[in-house]
Amino acid sequence: MGCLMAVILAAGEGKRMKSKKAKVVHEIFGMPLVEWVYRSVKNAGVDEVVLVVGHKAEEVKEKMGDKALYAFQEKQMGTGHAVMQAQEYLNNKDGYVIVLCGDTPLISSETISNTINYHKENANSATIITAELDKPDGYGRIVRSSDGSVKKIVEHKDASSEERNIKEINSGMYCFSIKDLTEALKELDNNNSQGEYYLTDTIEILISKGKKVGAIKVEDSSEILGINDRAQLVEAGGIIRNRILKRHLDNGVTIIDPASTFIDEDVEIGIDTVIYPSTIIEGKTKIGEDCIIGPGSRIVSAQISDRVEVKNSVVLESSIDDDTKVGPFAYLRPGSKIGKKVKIGDFVEVKKSVIGDKTKISHLTYVGDAEIGSNVNLGCGVVVVNYDGQKKNKTIVGDNSFVGCNVNLISPVEVKSNAYVAAGSTITDEVPENSLAIARSRQVIKEGWVEKRRILNKQEKDQSK
């Protein structure tokens, strides 16, 4: 059978993007364009992937890491020249290679698999991925022989009037038998007005040698859409977004308003969860069953268990256990771990803290770098004062404790289990178990102070005249 490889062309500058970044690292739903192509390739069962990089090569390598092998194209001298740079990985190998573009994020793993299978079944030297367009102007046309094989690819400017009526176009993506491709690459030249080496010329070379060249047409022409500017980036994003939403709908998730809902590719959502409008779910978020998410929530790389409600809130890189309610207008910052049957209410911020089961933090509270036990009540306006100006310090509140409204817990400090802290207290020392802590000034009443102050103010004004 031989090896199964892919070469992804990712060296272009993409001037029309008008960006300081390499074109292929622009993202759609949390992934660079080239990553979408890479994943489709790997999901199609390809063993080895070579990325041909050039413009801002280090930026592309930083995004893709060690997932792929790399070939470097110092000067962008055409698609054929780009594939030549990967030839060291192809030499002396037997098998198949699929050549794709790093700026075509809509190409599916099914299309890649179908192309490879079609190529093998028909014993082709090369197979072209094609599409049928109602308006094919500007594209190379696929001219077929009577047996369905490819006779030639003719560019629009060189096509006859009859050939221009052909609607099947070349996508610029191919499957080759490796040995045939490497032989054809040896004969490529750049005797053209651009002085470039074109991969399409390998098709002409193979046909001239009597090799069999076929073409497989994609059912959905959007799969071949290349990203050349920001408008096409938006267009491709809309198509991917609809694919993702449909997958979740098919899996038993209710999405009330798909038009205002954005979900990244790697998100997992359980059945009978309801996603309300204006919700954004990003990264590697996993949401369980029977949850209510939104409206107006943003969740990033979070782990959310079953029957959780997150309303009008932000959850970043945190976990929420079963039957917990978050929001509205709560903010869970990275590193927070929220237990079962917890209430995180309105305008509560939690940062890098553990909140035990059945604890209630109902409103207007900040908890940072803390361990809050089970069945604890933190009243309105509680602040964990975790930063001393140099370092973050830890606060611990034991199980079944009650912390009253407007309490400051000055870290590092511990409130033991079953303790009470009176409202308005500033706690700097340990609160023992089963005790009540009161740390506030005694109330003082000064009778007639307001009238005295008014008279004094009048006198000061008169003297200043």
UniProtKB/TrEMBL annotation:
Binds 1 Mg(2+) ion per subunit. Its EC number is 2.7.7.23, 2.3.1.157. It is found in: Cytoplasm. InterPro entries: Bifunctional_GlmU, GlmU-like, GlmU_C_LbH, GMPPB_C, Hexapep, NTP_transferase_dom, Nucleotide-diphossugar_trans, Trimer_LpxA-like_sf. Residues 6-219 form the Nucleotidyl transferase domain. Residues 319-416 form the Mannose-1-phosphate guanyltransferase C-terminal domain. It catalyses: alpha-D-glucosamine 1-phosphate + acetyl-CoA = N-acetyl-alpha-D-glucosamine 1-phosphate + CoA + H(+); N-acetyl-alpha-D-glucosamine 1-phosphate + UTP + H(+) = UDP-N-acetyl-alpha-D-glucosamine + diphosphate. One of its GO terms (molecular function) is UDP-N-acetylglucosamine diphosphorylase activity. One of its GO terms (biological process) is regulation of cell shape. UDP-N-acetyl-alpha-D-glucosamine binds at residues 9-12, 23, 73, 78-79, 140, 155, 170, 228, 333, 351, 366, 377. Residues 231-251 are annotated as: Linker. One of its GO terms (cellular component) is membrane. Residues 252-465 are annotated as: N-acetyltransferase. Residues 1-230 are annotated as: Pyrophosphorylase. Pathway: Bacterial outer membrane biogenesis; LPS lipid A biosynthesis; Nucleotide-sugar biosynthesis; UDP-N-acetyl-alpha-D-glucosamine biosynthesis; N-acetyl-alpha-D-glucosamine 1-phosphate from alpha-D-glucosamine 6-phosphate (route II): step 2/2; Nucleotide-sugar biosynthesis; UDP-N-acetyl-alpha-D-glucosamine biosynthesis; UDP-N-acetyl-alpha-D-glucosamine from N-acetyl-alpha-D-glucosamine 1-phosphate: step 1/1. It is an enzyme of class 2 (transferase). Its cofactor is Mg(2+). Keywords: Acyltransferase, Cell shape, Cell wall biogenesis/degradation, Cytoplasm, Magnesium, Metal-binding, Multifunctional enzyme, Nucleotidyltransferase, Peptidoglycan synthesis, Repeat, Transferase. Coiled coil: none annotated. Acetyl-CoA binds at N386, Y387, A423, R440. The active site is at H363 (proton acceptor). Homotrimer. Catalyzes the last two sequential reactions in the de novo biosynthetic pathway for UDP-N-acetylglucosamine (UDP-GlcNAc). The C-terminal domain catalyzes the transfer of acetyl group from acetyl coenzyme A to glucosamine-1-phosphate (GlcN-1-P) to produce N-acetylglucosamine-1-phosphate (GlcNAc-1-P), which is converted into UDP-GlcNAc by the transfer of uridine 5-monophosphate (from uridine 5-triphosphate), a reaction catalyzed by the N-terminal domain. In the C-terminal section; belongs to the transferase hexapeptide repeat family. This is Bifunctional protein GlmU. It comes from Acetivibrio mesophilus. The gene is glmU.
